[in-house]
Amino acid sequence: MNMDRSFTLSDDESISEFEKLESTLPDSLKRSSSSLIDLLANNENISTSSLVGNPGPGRNREPLRNHLYSKLSRSENGRESSPIPLPKPKFNENIHKPAMNDKQSSTGVLWVTERANEYGFGQSEEGDAAWANLGQGSPEHGDTIPNSFPRPQTIPIPDKSKGYAPTAGIRELREAVANYYNETYRTSKSSKYTWKNVCIVPGGRAGLTRIASIIKDCYLSFFLPDYTAYAEMLSLFKNFSPIPVPLNENDHYQFHLNLIKTELKKGVSALLTSNPRNPTGKCLTKLQLYQLHKLCREKCLLIMDEFYSHYYYDDNCSGSSISSAEFIEDVNSDPVLILNGLTKAFRLPGWRICWILGPEDYINALSSAGSYLDGGSNSPFQYAAIDFLKPLNVKNEMKALQLHFKMKRDYIIGRLTKMGWSFNESNTPNSTFYLWLNLSHLPGKLSNCLGFFHECLHSKVIVVPGFFFLINPQNLSNLEDVIWYNYVRLSYGPELHQLELGMDGIEQVLNRFGCLPYSLK
């Protein structure tokens, strides 16, 4: 689609386009457009009675609906029209599909990419150069970071790697992972990890799926907002009951131990969380981690997603990191599973080499699950990864990574501050490469994540609407009021030139709506 064309849509066409955008959302999120309609009505003090009389039961509310849909899409702020993206049908409804579940919804990142594709993103490398993809949860993976080790150009393929690898991974890599954690986090502990405490898995999602498959007959708590892919993992398996626990927005989504105590009293015996947290970019302190492990030891399985543990900026970018491994007393009796891998910290997401650390009994079960779920990880890449995990190599690599990504974080915070956002210690990420951006101070449709997402597409910027981080696999009705309509997640994982494009695009959006604290000439 040509982004420079002028759209002159009829009211009916505008309404149809917004409805089609809404129709692509998962069922649990389709309140988004209703919320946006209500917001506009409140901002403009539009009375339903002035448009449709006094609409009681059975009365027609379409004039109000049509008026406000039209408000979203026509004659806005210096542009002739602002059409909602028109998605293509995901499935051909005229073709019979025996036994296929065609109601499976997209994850947040996939959904925003699909919508961006309808605006021209993904059509060619040359065309994509004009886009800023701040939605993808991936770090820059080229040789673009000063003092970082060069990205591998070739991979040796020894004869022993040509056959199937064990579903728990090759012993040499398992030993390297165990040694790294012992040298980095457990030098003062008598209990050490061995290769038997490590399971190599083909990616973080595969690791989560293996874990979900071995959990049985329990309540599993997880905290919101969190990683969108947890939704699929938690909904596919019926051998446990997932219990979402929303964190408090007014408290900047702090993770308090009283909350854990409450969940344990309810009978929860498994707990899943990312630390550092996606999407808020915050990390538990070492004291909080110590208290968490002390509270849950022998009572509750802790599933600690630590993929962003090396994106940690509170220690002067020294290369240090934070991990639950430091607070485990006995590696074979403390019920703690730690997930990490090459995906984020080593900026090799395409390798699909990750690991789970835990007690031997859990690792044996995870190995068995791999035999029927995924078959195990790529063997040559496992051999190639062994040298990456030498502790001194990791320390040097993480120092380079932290300095570079903190620079990028500070850049986008600086740009957004000039545009009118306020940042302090509470809402500034101290880890990951995500910014959980509050839109509530913006006017009209921009204060709603769907409206902001739509306007960003016009400026060739991709963000992730906040409501995708509502993980609600059982569709619990009491979570309806915690969908984050006023937030988007921005990633500063891409290279700096993409961040510059993204900030320029957001600045253009705010300028169109007349809400910049300065004027663009």
Summarize the structure.
With 521 residues, this protein is of the alpha/beta class. Helices cover 36% and strands 12% of the residues. It has helices spanning 11-23, 31-44, 48-52, 62-73, 108-117, 125-128, 171-185, 204-214, 230-236, 257-265, 286-296, 360-373, 379-385, 391-418, 449-458, 496-512; strands spanning 74-76, 79-81, 132-133, 198-201, 219-224, 241-246, 268-274, 301-305, 336-341, 354-357, 434-438, 461-462, 464-465, 487-491.
Q: Any overview of this molecule?
A:
It is globular and about 65 Å long. By secondary structure, the chain is an alpha/beta fold. The two termini are 27 Å apart. Strand 1 and strand 2 form a beta hairpin. Helix 1 crosses helix 4, helix 8 crosses helix 12 and helix 10 runs parallel beside helix 11.
CATH architecture classification of the largest domain: 3-Layer(aba) Sandwich
Number of helix segments? 16
Question: How many extended strands?
Answer: 14
CA-to-CA gap between the ends? 27 Å
CATH class of the largest domain: Alpha Beta
Mean pLDDT score, rounded? 82
Order of helices and strands: HHHHEEHHEHEHEHEHEHEEEHHHEHEEEH
Categorize the overall geometry. globular
What are the low-pLDDT stretches, counting only 5+ consecutive residues below 50? 1-11, 45-61, 73-89
Question: What is the oligomeric state here?
Answer: single chain
What share of residues are in beta strands? Answer: 5-15%
Query: What name goes with the CATH superfamily of the largest domain?
Result: Type I PLP-dependent aspartate aminotransferase-like (Major domain)
- Counting helices, strands and paired strands, the structural category is alpha/beta
